[in-house]
């Protein structure tokens, strides 16, 4: 009989829990400032992360106040943006990522006091976007969250981080194939709430998470556990590859192919 591990007990969110919303706006033809004002009024986030934000989105600050920061992608009309109702101690850091074939990428990293937050819009290449995640990780504190449009299919394979975002699809490729591209990975944090919001005018759904710092000692334990899980996935992939090679006609250990 298989024994199932009981689900972990998530503590109730305390006063330090922060509500974060992340949304790929779909540049120019998607969600505009009016949509963002409505979203802020409905959700009351402590931090709003945006991808594919154009320079016009800066008008959000005039409409709802708060503090706003924009990081334009090199040579593009759009980029990453952050908004908060409360000023930050210092503006987000802009981190240059390994470039893609067509688009050079950057990341915004905010030092939010008790933990760091990275706002990402990664490349489509499934090896490149994971390399970009590792570059981002090197700029993060022990407690950190990485949110945004990952453009990743399958596990992110970022050692030490857990995927705590919503499990529902957030984007439909050519309105047919549902994909969970918008994610939240954390290290040293507890997720108390996660949800997917209506898509609105964009081609992506906003995602919502409520995070707070994990108790002392959990951050390092979670990092070791995440590394062990990543190593286990790689070992299983190597075993499957070895079996496929062994079963291939003409390979060692199998019947020789007819001549």
From TrEMBL:
Sequence segments annotated as region (Disordered): 239-259
Keyword Hydrolase in record: yes
Entry keyword annotation includes ATP-binding: no
SUPFAM superfamilies cross-referenced by the UniProt entry: DNase I-like
GO MF entries: endonuclease activity; exonuclease activity
Span of domain Endonuclease/exonuclease/phosphatase: 21-204
Annotated keywords: Endonuclease, Exonuclease, Hydrolase, Nuclease
InterPro entries registered for this protein in UniProt: Endo/exonu/phosph_ase_sf (IPR036691), Endo/exonuclease/phosphatase (IPR005135)
Membrane spanning residue stretches: none
Listed name of the protein: Endonuclease/exonuclease/phosphatase
């Amino acid at each position: 009989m298989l024994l199932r591990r009981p689900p972990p007990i998530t503590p109730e969110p305390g006063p330090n829990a922060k509500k974060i919303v992340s949304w790929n706006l779909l540049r120019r033809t998607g969600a505009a400032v009016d949509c963002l004002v409505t979203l802020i009024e409905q959700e009351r986030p402590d931090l709003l992360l945006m991808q594919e934000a154009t320079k016009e989105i800066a008008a959000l600050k005039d409409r709802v106040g708060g503090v706003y920061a924009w990081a334009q992608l090199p040579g593009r009309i759009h980029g990453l943006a952050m908004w908060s109702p409360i000023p930050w101690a210092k503006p987000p850091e802009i981190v240059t990522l390994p470039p893609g074939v067509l688009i050079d990428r950057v990341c915004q990293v905010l030092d939010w006091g008790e933990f760091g937050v990275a706002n990402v819009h990664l490349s489509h290449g499934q090896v490149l976007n994971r390399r970009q995640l590792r570059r981002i990780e090197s700029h993060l504190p022990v407690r950190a969250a990485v949110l945004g449009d990952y453009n990743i299919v399958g596990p992110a394979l970022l050692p030490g981080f857990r995927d705590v975002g919503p499990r529902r699809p957030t984007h439909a490729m050519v309105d047919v194939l549902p994909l969970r591209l918008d994610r939240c990975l954390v290290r040293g944090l507890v997720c108390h709430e996660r949800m997917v919001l209506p898509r609105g005018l964009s081609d992506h759904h906003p995602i919502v998470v409520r995070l707070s710092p994990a108790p002392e000692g959990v951050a390092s334990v979670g990092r070791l556990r995440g590394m062990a899980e990543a190593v286990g996935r790689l070992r299983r992939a190597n075993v499957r590859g070895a079996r496929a090679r062994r079963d291939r006609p003409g390979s060692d250990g199998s019947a020789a192919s007819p001549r």
